[in-house]
Amino acid sequence: MTKYIDGKKIAAEIKAELAVKVKLLKQKNIFLSLAVILVGDNSASKIYIKKKSEACQEIGVNSETYVLKSDISIEKLNALINHLNDRKDINGILVQLPLPKHISENQVIEMISAEKDVDAFCAVNTGKLMIGNYKFLPCTPAGIIEILRHEKIEISGKRCVIVGRSNIVGKPTAMLLLQNDGTITVCHRKTKNLKEICLNADILISAVGQAGFINKDMVKKGVVVIDVGINRDSNGKLCGDVCFEQVAKLASHITPVPGGVGPMTIAMLLKNTIKAACLQNQILRV
Amino acid sequence: MTKYIDGKKIAAEIKAELAVKVKLLKQKNIFLSLAVILVGDNSASKIYIKKKSEACQEIGVNSETYVLKSDISIEKLNALINHLNDRKDINGILVQLPLPKHISENQVIEMISAEKDVDAFCAVNTGKLMIGNYKFLPCTPAGIIEILRHEKIEISGKRCVIVGRSNIVGKPTAMLLLQNDGTITVCHRKTKNLKEICLNADILISAVGQAGFINKDMVKKGVVVIDVGINRDSNGKLCGDVCFEQVAKLASHITPVPGGVGPMTIAMLLKNTIKAACLQNQILRV
What we know:
Two copies of one chain form a homodimer. The first copy, chain A, is α/β, with parallel strands linked by helices. Chain A has helices spanning 7-27, 43-59, 74-86, 105-111, 123-131, 139-150, 170-179, 194-199, 244-248, 261-280; strands at residues 3-4, 33-39, 62-68, 92-95, 159-163, 183-187, 203-206, 224-227, 231-232, 238-239, 253-254.
């Protein structure tokens, strides 16, 4: 029997726990606040930041959204981020990616103070993840690990195949699975024998961004499939990278899109915001 | 025909090029200096730092060696590193690992200013490597890439298997091979089917630290073998992780120990020291 992983439900459980923590922090006079910056009017980005703000509200975290024109100068963006870095009442700052082409994402990410970098994308937070000595984990990789933990799927000794090597998902997910004693393989557009490699996977993570990319001929029976892709199919319907119906027949566990990794990513963002507030207020545990 | 890779010779070629750069910098009144810190009296460490100092001398870089007692306090070590961070005439600082148990290596590494961290072990330099936007590369992984480049071994699309997942070798080597479009697999003590995975490798990197770990049954014909291990065999003779004689018969290329990766690591340290001096003096290219 295939287990359809309900990311929305797991995320709801986590958010309920986080809401309790937010309440406890309020009792200590710590009121959490997340700043969300959107540059331009990418329609997907608009939906994401709306979801993030709603999730904040759900658990009692304040959120401030800054919507900036797509032609904003890097200097002005820097000034805003510096201002937010300095504000004691802001615990976390996130800049929704992608950014317009004239702005370097790397440069902007590095403007955010590492202590408020709740996406954990800056160099020092990335390095800490790789070294294994981290405070924040990037949200999607952390969400994937939480799903596996929740479903009691052992990672240790398992062949974990990650398709996609982005800085945001592929690489950090590989590093996290490695820290959990998985044997990791990272594949990408230059990989030969992709099918053969995927067929060896006990845990298959797809973060490609292409509908229908992983089909039934690429997975073995009993595989755990985590679909990170967010695409539109030919009918304009939201879907992942995985041919869900056919792959589900072979998988022991599979995440749907929507309702799989996505809600977990947002839950992890909230977790990081609380963690940031605790660190900023020298609270070890809440 | 197996190609025995002569790391000593490749390193000598690189050092000759670097010596020219050092001379050119001297003409600009920039005199390079590397500070090397040894804590305790680990006999292998003593040999390594001696080799590093000699290599500096060879290309005209000054080196200062600080030998500290093994019971030194972290505060005193911190004071020394801070002093070296502040000194304008010191371009690079390296603390020879391992450190005595009472001192946290992570903590000490983070004391070194990122601009002088010529081992590239600190979190921000590690993160920059992973993101792909780096100034320094850690020396052993960089040395491995240089060997492959020198031998005109294509990495793109190749199955690269890294055995060992240390922060110093395994993980950064995997990230660098990935950036060079290799398909990477990282194995470790929890890996099952290690033999089967190694048999699929086009490029096999062993960084385990165990003599005789990789034998002929674990490699396919035509494999490129890079041996990062430094061990003693039962006769006390220096050797790598690989059963050299038997694996060499199958490999297209193989690095010996000693004389393979080791000299390349030192050459990369010199390269980083020059790079550090250039960055500190706003020189884009020498």
